[in-house]
Design brief:
This protein is mainly β. It has 2 domains: 86 residues, Chitinase A, domain 3, CATH 3.10.50.40; 48 residues, Thrombin, subunit H (Beta Barrel), CATH 2.40.10. The protein has 2 helices and 9 strands. Bound molecules: zinc ion (ZN). Zinc ion binds next to loops.
């Protein structure tokens, strides 16, 4: 078994209209262990071929990103399905169960007792345009291997 590669990179994520969605600019670069599904497939497929100092625009289809929008996850539910003390506001997010990986729903609209919720990832159905600059590339160290994820320059979980 080969040792997984850890890559550190800066990124700016835009949609296909050029609107910036997210960026690491002014922050620490993102460190990931490749090939573990920690990032969207479209990035995981391309980053292994990049070296330190490389810059590239990577266009990720919705299929290789956060998937297409699933209309079955857009639901109208009654207010009575929430705890009576829930303060339901648009944009509020909640999980349907305590289990890790349980879908996160966002409250899209509150219309009296009708609550419209959406369990799609906010970037579902979006073609992702990543401007990427690789700042570090190295084999995972023993601590990272033990944890199964990458650590940035500051070490574990910062
Ligand atoms: Zn760790």
């Amino acid at each position: 078994m080969s040792i997984p590669t850890v890559i550190g990179f800066h990124y700016t994520l835009k949609d296909k209209n050029g609107t910036t969605i997210d960026s690491s600019e002014g922050k620490d670069p993102l460190y990931v262990m490749l090939g573990k599904g920690h990032i969207v497939k479209g990035l995981d497929d391309v980053l292994p071929d990049m070296d330190k100092g490389d810059k590239k625009t990577i266009i990720v289809s919705e299929q290789d990103g956060y998937g297409p929008v699933n209309d079955d996850l857009r639901l109208k539910v009654g207010r009575n399905q929430f705890p009576s003390d829930a303060n339901l506001t648009e944009g509020m997010q909640f999980q349907t169960s305590q289990e890790p990986g349980a879908p996160v729903f966002t409250v899209m609209k509150v219309d009296g007792d009708d609550i419209y919720i959406d369990g799609n990832h906010p970037l579902a159905g979006v073609e992702l345009h990543f401007d990427v600059e690789v700042v570090e590339k190295r084999p995972a160290d023993p601590e990272e291997l033990a944890h199964g994820h990458a650590h940035g320059p500051g070490g574990h979980h910062h």
